[in-house]
Amino acid sequence: MTNLPRAELHCSDTQISIPYCVQCIRTIPCHCTIAISSENSSSVDTLWPPRLTRCPRSINVTNVTHIVNLAALQSFFSRTSLGALTGNTYLPQPLPVSLPGFRHFRHKFQDFLSADRTRSHDLRKFAARVKNDTLIYDDLADIMLHDSDSW
Predict the structure, then answer these.
(1) Using one digit for the tens of pLDDT, what is the confidence trace for 67-109?
(2) Burial class (CB in 10 A: 0-12, 13-18, 19+), 21
(3) 136: exposed, middle or buried (Cβ count in 10 Å: 0-12, 13-18, 19+)
(4) In the chain, which stretches have pLDDT less than 70?
(5) Neighbours of 138 (CB within 10 A)
(6) What pLDDT was estimated at residue 151?
């Protein structure tokens, strides 16, 4: 589960609210459904159907493991400081990491654009810009708009 503000576990007649976590793994009991809703809504946005086969024998839904975004961490930390962390490391608590703020350029003109944009960034270039405390531009038009503010 990643960034799910509101999730409930529905098992028979029981509803259990699942506490928020940024990136965690939970084992869900058989014959239970997960209902996900947005933060300010009571209506269900997504419904995950129950597992009906290959169910683990005993399950404690309060057991949580946390994953790490190793690709992002490797962009900001050396291999020695990351120690034994791997892509499939599961931690009992979230990793206490503080990254620098990402300064993403946004011009007021972008509010008038009706085009639907899908953004993607090269992680290495993105991390280098964050480390150097420079602005991050999505495309050439953003650079021109940024420079136009000084006209």
Answers:
(1) 888 888 888 888 898 888 888 888 888 888 887 777 766 666 6
(2) middle
(3) middle
(4) 1, 56-62, 104-121, 138-151
(5) 15
(6) 47
Q: Return the H-helix or E-strand segment holding 107.
A: none
Distance CA 127, CA 78 (A): 13
Question: What is the residue type of 79?
Answer: R
How far apart, in whole angstroms, are the C-alpha atoms of residue 73 and residue 37? 30
Q: Give me the residues paired with residue 9 across strands.
A: 16, 34
User: What's the 3-state SS for 64-116?
Assistant: EEEECCHHHHHHHCCHHHHCCCCCCCEECCCCCCCCCCCCECCCHHHHHCCCC
Longest pairwise C-alpha distance within the chain: 68
Place of tokens 């839904």: 61
- Cross-strand bridge partners of residue 136: 104
Helical segments of 28-151, H only: 70-76, 79-82, 123-131, 140-148
**Which string of DSSP letters, residue by residue, matches 2-60?**
BS-SEEEEEETTEEEEEPP-SBEEEPPPTTEEEEEE-TT--S-SEEEPPP-SS--SS--
Residue 60: both structure tokens together: 């404690």
What one-letter code names the amino acid at 135? Answer: L
